[in-house]
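User: These chains co-purify. Model them together.
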Amino acid sequence: MGSVPLAHYLALGSALFAVGFAALLVRRNALVVFMGVELMLNAANMTFLAFSRAHQTMSGQAAAFFVIAVAAAEAAVGLAIMIALVRNRNTLNVDEVDTLKY
Amino acid sequence: MEWLSAMNPAEGLQDALRWIVLFPLFGAAVNGLLGKRLGRANVHLVACGAVFASFVISAIALYTVSFGDVSRITDQWWRWFSIGNVPVEMSLTIDRLSAVMMCVVTGVGFLIHIFSTEYMSHDEGYWRYFAYLNLFVAAMSLLVLGSNLLVMFVGWEGVGLASYLLIGFWYTDDAKAFAGRKAFVVNRVGDFGFLLGIFTLVGLFGTIEFEQLKALSASITPDTVLEAGIFSGWTLGAAITMACLFLFLGATGKSAQLPLYVWLPDAMAGPTPVSALIHAATMVTAGVYMVARLSFLYAWSPTAMATVAVVGALTAIFAALMAYAQNDIKKVLAYSTVSQLGFMFIGVGVGAWWAAIYHLVTHAFFKACLFLGSGSVMHAMRDETDIRLFGGLRKEMWHTWATFGISTIAITGVLPLSGFFSKDAILHGAHANPNLFFPWVPTFTYAIGLVAALSTSFYMWRMFNLTFHGERRGMLEHRAHEGGNAMVGPLWVLAGLAVGSLVWGLPLSGGARFENFLKPVFRAADENIARMTALGAQKLGVPVPPPPAHDFAAMLPGYLIALVVALIGFGIAWYLYLGPGKDIPAKIAQGAPALYRAFANKFYVDEFYQAVIVAPLSATARFLWRVVDAFAIDKLVVNGSAVLTGWIAQLFRYFQDGNVQRYAVVMAVSAVVILWIFLG
Amino acid sequence: MTEAMLFYPMALVAIGGALGMIASRNPVHGAMYLVLSFFGIASVYVLLAAELIAALQIIVYAGAIMVLFVFVIMLLNLNEDDLERPRLTPGTIFGGAAALAFWMISFMVFSDLPDQTMPTELPEGFGQVASVGRLIFGPFIVPFESTSILLLVAMVGAIVVAKPRI
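Assistant: Joint model of the three components:
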């Protein structure tokens, strides 16, 4: 049991993605949903880095860098939206935010 | 108006012909759009003025083509369109034939407009009435003046429309609206034949211009077998017969011949001056005019000519018989019109073209006078039309009685008046013109024509006597009154014309004046008949028959027979309705009830059509309406698709609830399914 | 030898943290579990020879973003009534099933992959700050500058959205 094969890294990434996905689809607290999104971004980063390592090229690392930057921007805006949501509707439950049907 | 001051009137007329059509058209537009605000006097002025202007131009045109250097004037209006390489010109042509027609249309039309100003004085829709009437004159002018078949067809349809509008003028009355519809539908059948005829001629000759057709017709060889087109394998003669029969079908519709005459008696639902103008004097003669216009083609087809003559003869006798037992003053006149139109078709069918046109003109005068006279009677008798209620009106309505009497003498063919000469010219043509191909046709048409003439004399005098003589039988408390100048004036003018037009038909040595007058128009037709006869004689191996004699001696027996026949009819009518035999008609009606009912019910032709054509059609229509349209299309397809959409929408509404997370679930499930399909 | 010894425990930590995040009712607990998961992920990044990214993961994610989360949770001052109660709805069933199916499909796909092992030898300075910096300020300069503008825009946007009155 020496080095770990690429497939295991990828499996870890997909497992993290599935958990984040489940958080996105199942949880009703908007904050937890948002955390699920962050987790999915990390899962994507995991595959970037795994392939970068496997192919010995650094481009994957550059992509992961940008993903982190975008995640930071997304977190800022997303949390601002949470605050606005609580202020206007006094709820964080996504079930109660259904104005999209109009 | 510069054309008036032009040096050569024929040159100016080239641009003026269109105004014959345009004046009444503008009159119709002005009255139709603004008539309600213009007021009665202005509407009358516009309508009568427009028709009078057309009449003036027509009269100038008639003068020009009669005495000027040219016998034909063409107004090249604009190029309408081209079908393939067949150009269709919007052009108007006037020659002696159409000039005469135009003067009759606009002249009689003008008189009837004048008459209408008083006749319609109690009607609220007078402006509509005059708009329609002007529209009719415009369409009729287009029909007469058109220099090709398609322009003629536009006018043909236009008069049909005007006729429909005027028959159903009092459209709040269901029966009258229905009569208008019937006229329209029956005419459609004929118009369909007319269109097929036009198409056939385009296919055969590649042109629809009358002049070009005339030029081409001179060099026809009927036995040529056609190579191309839908008539390939036919001989040219057979194809021309086909075209002529199609066109004649159109004529039977418009001119109320067998089997399509049924609309004309019902058309009497319209105002009486309309019956005078449209359904007696002008529109219904359009078929005769059309056959005369295309006489050079009919000349090549003995079959078509024989058909025209036989249909005309049968219509003449049939309509005359139906008129026997009619008690409605206008219905009698309507059947009389059908019968007289049959006479005209005998004329064109036997090659006596000028006689047919001459009868058309004289008939326009005296029949318009008769209709206006009946209108005058109705005006005086609270719109009553049953002649059994009239009687003795001579004392109250002297002018109407006198003019009606003159016209009755004219129509029955008693010697000195125009009707005698015109009708006799036709009968003479019928038995004098030799027919190599159908030797029985002259005898047949002549015999039938004589019986029809006898019948005409009988029923006209019967009506006249019942209406104006004897004692009043009904409406005893009502006092009839003569109309004003606007009604009496046209009556006298028309009666005068019915008398005066005899000068054209006097059997002078060398032919009647009218015959010589129209000779240039029908020269091509006569030449074609001569060619056809020569060909036929060659084929049958008989000598070419000599042309009919023109001397007075040869015609005298015919004249005497016709006169005697007319007097016999008069005698019977006098004996049965005024003389000692007053109670015989009732006895006949009682003694032979089946016969009487057959006469009174017009031989059940309407009922026959109702059962054979209308009922199956309406059953089909009902099926299409109830089953196909209401159920299959409306309920199943239209509403069904809406209901189905509703159901599906109900299903998908669940997904469209605004819950973003549920949208995400749908997206996720779809993504997984796609992954499964492509990777799993 | 060392790689495998470190990878599987750290992978377990990452997945366990993620599952803890999804299972906790209180968002503060969820955030803490997520931080735990991020640490595990960062360790795996180190195993993948991405030292800089691993450091950024700790600093940006676990440090900045999660602190922001917790800060917002505190700001909103949720009480017991606002916590969600687990419910079984069609949405949760289908959502969970979809996530599970996704993982299973991907697992099947990866288990079919040929047993490719990582190359043992790496270029000099692979994943170091210097080489990543040369890459970012070299071929990736345009995306990098765009990212800085994106961050500026996100900052302005966050302020505009979150402030009650501007």
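Residues 59-89 of chain A form the longest helix (31 residues).
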